[in-house]
Amino acid sequence: MVGSHVVECLVGQGHQVTAITRPGSDARFLQSLGVAISPCGFDNADDLAKAISGADQVYHCASRVGDWGPWKLFEEQVVGVTRKLRDACARVAVGRVAHVSSITVYGHPPKGLTTILENETLGRWPVWFDYYARAKAESEMLWKDYPGEYVILRPSWILGPRDRYTLPRLIRAFQRIYTPLIGDGENLINIIYAGDVAEGIVLAGQTPGVSGEAFHLSSEGEIRAREFADLLGKMIGGKGRTIFLPEWFVWSLASTVEFAGRLTSYPNPPILTRYAVRLMLRPCTFSTAKAAEKLGWRRKVTIPEGLEKSLNWIRDNKV
Fold first, then answer.
1. CB 244 within 8 A of CB 184
2. What angle do CA 167, 172, 173 make, to 5 degrees?
3. How far apart are CA 125 and CA 10, in angstroms?
4. pLDDT digits (tens, 9 = 90+) for 242-283
5. Contact 92, 57 (CB under 8 A)
C-alpha cells in the first residue's frame, strides 16, 4: 500500500520511476501510472543491483505485512530483504535510500509518556513474540554501516486505499453482532493517511542535510477510539451496538488466543492478537516536530476523509 502511494507522489512530481515488484504481483495500478515495472523480486542482490542501477533515490517500502507467523518468515521477508537491498544500493552507489520502518520499533510504550523522540532506544519496551517490531528494528540497524546517504521513516498505523490487510480485518470485526471497543473508548488513535505518509517519505528522500536521521510520520491524535468506531460503523452499516471490554480482559484474551495459535502452529492470524490491541491503544506521543522542522512535513488529510477514500477503494475492488 505505502509503496503505491510513494510512486503516485513521485510521478506527480514528474520523476522517472521504476517499481520493483515480486514476480506475479498485481501491478495494474502501477502500470496505470505509466511507471516502469521490474518484477525481479527481492531474492537476489545481483538482480536488485541491475534494477536500481542509475537511480538517484531508492524508496524501500517492501516488507512482510502483518503480525502473525514464525520468526523465520519475518527474518527472511523483512530483515533479509533489507539486507539484500542495502548491499545492492551500495554496489551501484545510489544517491540516497529512504527506508520505511515503523513506530513499532520501540515496542509497546506504556501509558503516561509525554513525548517519544526519534533518538529513543529501539526495542525499549519489548513484547514477547512481537516479531514484526523486532524485524523492523533489526532492519533499521542494517543501514548503520551503509556507505551512502540514507534516511529512516517511522510511520504509525496507516489508513488508505490499497490496504488489503489491516482495515479489511477491522471491518470484518465491526460487521459482527457487536462492535468491540477496548476500555472506555476515550483514548486517541494514532492513525494517519497513506498519502500523507508517502509525502513525508518522498520529502525525506529529497531533502538535503538529513542523511542518517530518522523521522516519525505519525498522528498527534485527531480522533478517539469511540468516535472512530462510530464513524466506521456508520460508513459500513455495522450490524450491532458497541460493547466496551476492559483492557485487562482483552489483553488476557489476546495473549491466550496467540499462545494457542503458536502452540498449534496455526498458519492464519487469529481473530484477536496483541498487535491488533496495540493499534487501538497505542499512545499519540510520538513527536513529529523533527519532520515538520527539517522536512517541512505536515498532515493534510483528515481521518474521516481518509476513511472514506479507503472504504470506497475496498468496495470498488471487493476486498
1. yes
2. 95
3. 35
4. 777 787 787 788 778 777 767 767 667 666 777 777 766 776
5. no
Residue 74 · residue 67 · CB < 8 Å: no
The structural domains of the chain, with segments of one domain joined by +, span: 2-313
Q: What is the mean pLDDT of residues 60-80?
A: 83
Give the torsion sign (CA, 191, 136, 313, 13): positive
Name the amino acid, one letter, at 203.
L
> Considering only CA atoms, which of 70, 46, 48 is closest in space to residue 60?
48
| The predicted structure's pLDDT at residue 2 | 92
C-alpha cell at 32: 496505470
Q: Which helix (H) or strand (E) holds 60?
A: strand 57-60
Q: CA-to-CA distance for 309 and 244, rounded, in angstroms?
A: 28
* pTM for the whole structure: 0.89
Measured between alpha carbons, how far is residue 41 from residues 19, 23, 97, 221 in Å? 10, 6, 18, 37
To the nearest 5 percent, what fractions of the chain are helix, strand and coil?
Answer: 45, 15, 40
Selection from 1, 136, 142, 3 nearest residue 61 by Cα? 3
CA atoms within 13 A on the CB side of 90: 13
Give the cell for residue 22.
515480486
Mind listing the pLDDT tens digit for each residue in 130-148? 888 899 999 999 999 999 9
Amino acid code (one letter) for 242: T
Look at residue 167 in the predicted model and tell me its pLDDT: 86
Nearest to 149 by CA among 205, 87, 199: 205
- The span from the CA of 7 to the CA of 10, in Å, is 5
Which of left, alpha, beta for 147 (phi over 0: left; psi -120 to 50: alpha)? Answer: alpha
* Chain centroid offset of residue 194 CA: 9
- What does R_g of the chain's alpha carbons equal in angstroms? 19
Q: Provide the CATH number for the domain formed by 2-313 in this structure.
A: 3.40.50.720
pLDDT for 271 equals 67
Q: Report whether 272 contacts 204 (CB < 8 A).
A: no
Q: Which residue has the cell 523465520?
A: 72
